[in-house]
Amino acid sequence: MTARTQRPPTGPAGAPRPPKELVTRDYLKAVPQRNEAMQTESRPRGALLVTVPMRKPAWMVPPLSWILPYSSSRRVELDALGAEVIGLCDGKRSVESIIEAFAQRHRLSFREGQLAVTQFLKLLTARGIVAIVGRSKESPKR
Amino acid sequence: MELERTCWRGLAVGHPRDWELSLASGADEPGRCSFSDRYQERLRVEWHVLQRVPDLDGMLHKYRHRMEKKDSDVVVHEMPHAPEPWVGVTRRTPEGWITNAGRLFRQRRWLVEVTFLWSGGPDAGTEAAVLESIDTESEDVPARRWHALGLRVAAPRGYDLATASTQVGRVRWEFLPPRGERDGAITVERLAMPDMWLKRPLRDWLAGELPPHARTVRQDAVACAPHGAEQIISTSRITPLLSLLGIRRLRVDRAWRCPIEDRIYHMSYAVRSRGELIELPDGLEVQCCGGRGGRQE
């Protein structure tokens, strides 16, 4: 958070209205699934080396494939915290319960844990290491 | 109901523990704080100084009338559980319930407006407890309290929060003296997960936090209850001309680990000086141990 204000959501006459529970609730209820094709290798100090196989692009045919470098896998080294988050992604836990477990382990508030875990999951998704699978929209209302 | 207390720009707000501060106003902006639970915004508090005393009941009546006229589906109720002298209304909208309440703090001439956002029905007990807890800080206190995001600081009189940043596990506030002078700036940080990143003694880490080219004048352990702290006094050049005049930036850094919270606290204070003696300013106090007694001043 920075010390800046952000205009709150307002209705037509400027009256505040309840913000939609868009991304957050659905995202928290979603379940990260590990890429089953990836391989992991433990490294010193709790780090983890992840190797994700890459599909060969359709356009990578001779003569382009003779010239352009191509690797059949992508390697990503995760630090101890990253390895811990990957370890929590067991295909059953939701993002919310991963955050809770992470926050409890490191004595963080839920929001602190949320910041860390969601940023990291975003990175893992971009690297093809996990996929976030949504759940149905039933959700308890407070 | 046990409430967590947040103090921001002279206003203290009690709120449920799982409603965390998600937005706060910066310097030279009207006061505003927003609190969210893990799913959505729950509470919004806004405050500003008034030139004249308003008729709150009249404003409320007009507001209620306007709401009912604008949208016949909206049901507006008075807020009978609002603790005196708060006044407010609760209305039901297709998206949920909204409670608006207001109160004038006559001594400071602050109008404080509070909005509760409920996706289910409103919780009258929580609303009453939160409203009851809201209070303004007197202008003539020796130090202003800033409590938010786990950091609890009393900044010396005249100091204002200039920048606040939150990164993963790291909250950092910078306070500047009156008129925004850089000389006399105070920074306070609270860092989480020390087991993951603090791989060397705290004194060595603190030495690494000094500005580039700073020269350590003195480094020692300070006996401060309840946790011992490491302290470094350092100097650094400001400009060649000031160096010729013998004026340098003198800075004191203090850090300690709170075992109860498992956090590292770091505060620093820098002034221009010809000497090599510096102490933290009077009135500066940083509380740790979850606000239950641990403090450095």
Structure in a nutshell:
With 142 residues, chain A is α+β, with helices and mostly antiparallel strands.
Query: Which percent band covers the strand fraction of chain A?
Result: 15-25%
* Count of strand segments of chain A: 5
Widest β-sheet, arrangement of strands of chain B: 3-4-5-9-8-7-6
Helical stretch count of chain B?
Answer: 5
Q: Averaged pLDDT of chain A, please? A: 78
Q: What is the H/E order of chain A?
A: HEEEHEHHHE
Structural class of chain B: mainly beta
Feature tags:
heterodimer, A: 142 residues, alpha+beta, 3-stranded antiparallel β-sheet, 17% strand, disordered N terminus, disordered C terminus, B: mainly beta, 7-stranded antiparallel β-sheet, elongated
Please provide a written account of the structure.
- The complex is a heterodimer of chains A (142) and B (297).
- Chain A has a 3-stranded antiparallel β-sheet. Chain A has a two-stranded antiparallel sheet with strand order 1-5.
- Chain A starts with 22 loop residues before the first helix and ends in a 9-residue tail after the last strand.
- Helices cover 35% and strands 17% of the residues of chain A.
- Chain A is elongated, with a radius of gyration of 20 Å.
- The longest helix of chain A is centred in the last third of the chain and has 17 residues, at 110-126.
- With 142 residues, chain A is an alpha+beta fold.
- Chain B has 297 residues and is mostly beta strands.
- Helix content of chain B is 14%, strand content 46%.
- Chain B is built from 5 helices and 21 strands.
- Chain B starts with a strand and ends with a strand.
- The relative contact order of chain B is 0.11.
- The model of chain B has no long low-confidence stretch (mean pLDDT 87).
- The interface between A and B is large, with 34 and 47 residues.
